[in-house]
Amino acid sequence: MTLIEAKAMGTSPTRLDGPAKVTGTAPYTAEHHVDRPTYLHPVQATIARGRVTAMDTTATTRLDGVIAVLTVFDAPKLADTSDGELTILQDDNVAFRGQLIGAVIAETPEIARHAAGLVQVSYQEQQAQVEFPGDPATRYAPDEVSGFPTDTAVGDADAALATAAVTIDQTYTTPIEHNNPMEPHACIAIWHPAGDQPAVTLYDSTQGVHTVRETLAPLFGLEPQQLRVIAPHVGGGFGAKGAPHAHNVLALLAAQRSGGRPVRLALTRQQMFALVGYRTPTIQRIRLGAEADGTLIALTHDVIEQTSRVKEFAEQTAVSSRKMYQAPHRRTTHRLARLDVAVPFWMRAPGEAPGMFAGEVAMDELAVACAIDPIELRIRNEPATDPDSGKPWSGRHLIECLRRGAVEFDWAARDPAPGCRRSGDWLVGTGVAAATYPATRSPGNAARVEFTADHRYVVRIGAADIGTGTWTTLTQIAADALGCPFESVELQIGDTALPSASVAGGSSGISSWGTAIVTAARAFRDTHGTAPAVGAQVSVDADEGQDTDDFATHSFGAHFVEAHVNRDTGEIRVPRMLGVFSIGRAINPRLLRSQLIGGMIWGLSMALHEESVRDPRFGHIVNQDFAGYHFSAHADIGDFEAIWLDEIDEHTNPMGSRGAGEIGIVGAAAAVSNAVYHATETRIRDLPITADKLLG
User: Fold this and answer.
1) Residue 662 catalytic?
2) Most C-beta atoms within 10 A of its C-beta, which of 64, 365, 409, 579?
3) Helix (H) or strand (E) segment spanning residue 113
4) Smallest Cα–Cα separation from 408: which of 585, 572, 581?
5) What's the burial of 663, exposed, middle or buried (CB within 10 Å: 0-12/13-18/19+)?
6) Given the DSSP bridges, would you call strands 263-266 and 38-44 parallel, antiparallel or unpaired?
7) 63-66 contacts at long range (C-beta below 8 A, 24 or more positions apart)
8) Which helix H or strand E contains 334, and what residues bound it?
9) How far apart are CA 79 and CA 9, in angstroms?
10) Which residues neighbour 360 within 8 Å (Cβ) at sequence distance 6 or greater?
11) How far apart, in whole angstroms, are the C-alpha atoms of residue 407 and residue 414?
């Protein structure tokens, strides 16, 4: 793969979208100006399983300002009902509490909300199963987990464990967690009069406009080009906005009833806890077998996850254990518990985040059992090639991350014995954990380059900026690929009227979109040279190949944490955290550091705070707001730093970079957990780690 020369890349220019955002002029989804908007408020089911037998809308329709009411008995019909999450208002069945069963369209959001509360709903309720992990007899193996094989086996893990000198056999759990971007899920749907093109316009807070169009158009019997999706600015996504959800369908159904007027829907924070996905809870049993010197001979990782009865969602929780360390005998399995709950979905580093928590805490337990430094244990089990595929690494530098982090963090000063260091009333400990995340590119990306009369290069691609800096980094990539100044590039993104682009997910966005832009820029230079005529343009519909057939492409990292635990109250503080990462070339160091530290903070939050609690009687999330759903705030963050190795990956893309949006969270919770153990000599294997668990 031919790399492009880095001139703009590797610098940190001011964010192109920064001035608009700090002055409040960047339009987020619900802020787009439309003529004569109407407002939509959902009606949600208050039972977890059963049927709607009646919906009395008499009081609602009498209210001044109400335009229309949708119910399960009279909503427009969908052309495609194959997706169980998106098929709403098509029958009277209720599959989970909070399911959309109706909506009110009104002149103001206040009227819509009040009117929705006036709808009287009657049910025929059925017994629901909402408690994870459910009935063991009903668990099953899905066909795949996010494109990976469900189960794998190499050698005879059980026999190897039986003869191992040292064994670890523990179960680790992670709870339900909810994505909570600052901008709630929102959309504006406009169903244009017959004959207008496109037939429908949808402003949406999404991580992929083309993904929304491809998913929703068939539901309404539309050709993809009849649905235009627009999203220039998105206030955070973290996976939950990686695909459309039922609220998008509701808005489009309402737009069919609004008489051609735009329909605006912004979910409340409480509604987001029911409608737009969450991280599935997990129960993970890990068994490690090793020689006395810590050399792994066997590893098993068995996972139970939650899915919904209305639609299957299976996550690759154990996949990281297939690749992380060398062990001649390995087995991984995934099993699903199907419950009467909403559908889980992607949440930052899905699969790897909970899976590496269990895996890296188990490695820490093995280090203690073998009386070996946990860094040395990981180095001893470093694989020369990918244990899963046998391919050589495109660039595996985990040992460098561990060793550099050890120096920067002053690991040598650490007392290996747990529970022996104190500072007044505080017990002090340090912990380490490794991280990995795949470096992938998604197919289906295209780009267009045009030279304009003002001597600027207009670069068009339907990518998304969810707050991560896409506007700036893609401009840097385009400038280097075209051989022009950064200021000479005008980037256009966030619209299905632009060339197709994959979703911003799986840390693949910049790698996928950047490759398409580089390919288009090279084609432009080959066709028009360095002095193009005004109006010269090139469109490229296929991106450059990737060396995935020859190499295993992954990013790696190491987290170092210092934890303080109050010996009387069990309060936990983390004054110091360091992450060292191998992510290829840094396209924009300032934005990269922000992404890595953001992930690390989320890992701290995962370790100590985040937990959604489901009421087993009624099936809803009890702490469905920011008052009850805790996450790390400013007061929780001490001296946090992220650094990365100076490297270029020649095999992942022509920029030499690898995705960095998610690896910051992977392994971070394990490092916190390991530090808490080192401080207290108490091992907590169930997240979040709270004071009551330590005191107990």
Assistant:
1) yes
2) 579
3) helix 109-118
4) 581
5) buried
6) parallel
7) 63/106, 63/111, 63/114, 63/115, 63/118, 64/111, 65/106, 65/107, 65/108, 65/111, 65/115, 66/104, 66/105, 66/106, 66/111, 66/112, 66/115
8) strand 329-339
9) 46
10) 433, 434, 667, 670, 671, 674
11) 12
Among 355, 438, 366, 429, CA closest to 395: 438
- Hunting for tokens 């503080």 — which residue is that? 573
Residue that is written with structure tokens 């009865």 in the block = 309
**C-alpha–C-alpha distance, residues 542 and 376, integer Å:** 45
The two three-digit tokens of residue 355, written as one number: 């899976």
Are residues 37 and 195 in contact, defined by beta-carbon separation less than 8 angstroms? Answer: no
Exposed / middle / buried, residue 490 (Cβ in 10 Å: 0-12, 13-18, 19+): middle
pTM for the full model? 0.97
Q: pLDDT category, 93, cuts 50, 70, 90? A: very high
Which residue is associated with the tokens 């936990």?
A: 572
Using alpha carbons, select from 242, 206, 313 the residue that is nearest to residue 505. Answer: 242
What tokens were used for 387? 């244990």
272: nearest Cα among 319, 304, 243, 240: 240
For 28, residues 6+ apart whose C-beta sits below 8 A from its C-beta are 183, 186, 205, 233, 234, 235
Distance CA 428, CA 431 (A): 10
Neighbours of 18 (CB within 10 A): 14
**How far, in Å, CA of 22 to CA of 323, rounded?**
42
The partner residues of 570 in beta bridges, in order of sequence, read: none
Over residues 377-411, the pLDDT tens digits come to: 999 999 999 999 999 999 999 999 999 999 999 99
Burial 250-286 (b: 16+ CB within 10 A, else e): bbbbbbbbbeebbbbbbbeeebbbbbbbbbbbbbbbb
Give, to the nearest 10 degrees, the angle between helix 668-680 and helix 589-608.
50
Q: How far apart are CA 16 and CA 14, in angstroms?
A: 6
Give the active site residue among 85, 183, 450, 662.
662
CA neighbours closer than 13 Å in the CB half-sphere of residue 62: 6
Take residue 435 and report the two structure tokens written for it: 């991280």
Report residue 548's pLDDT band, with 50, 70 and 90 as the boundaries. Answer: low
- Each residue of 674-683: pLDDT tens digit? 999 999 999 9
- Distance CA(600)–CA(639), nearest Å, equals 12
Give the DSSP per-residue string, 426-478.
EEEEEEEEEEEEE----S---EEEEE-TTS-EEEE-----SSS-HHHHHHHHH
Collect all residues with Cβ–Cβ distance below 8 Å to 691 and sequence separation of at least 6: 569, 570, 571, 572
Identify the structural domains of the chain with CATH numbers, from first to last: 18-27+442-545 (3.30.365.10), 32-127+182-236+242-275 (3.90.1170.50), 138-177+279-440+550-695 (3.30.365.10)
